[in-house]
Amino acid sequence: MTTDPVGRFLAALDPKSREAIGAKPRQEQERLAAAWERELEADDELDTLDELSPPAAEAEAARRVLDRGTD
Q: SS3 string of 1-61?
């Protein structure tokens, strides 16, 4: 398992989104990965999901970040 935030973020994405985000400039990937990490840290609902399934929590946080498109 990678400790690189961008790598972890990309791994949490569905294949189609992973390909699209992987094609973006590294700076944009880093910005989205930082937003993803903030989402994971800030949302109590994700904490509960993380206890049951860490990959599901990471995927949900990634989906939310992409839905917003910014942060």
A: CCCCHHHHHHHHCCHHHHHHHHCCCHHHHHHHHHHHHHHHHHCHHHHHHHHHCHHHHHHHH
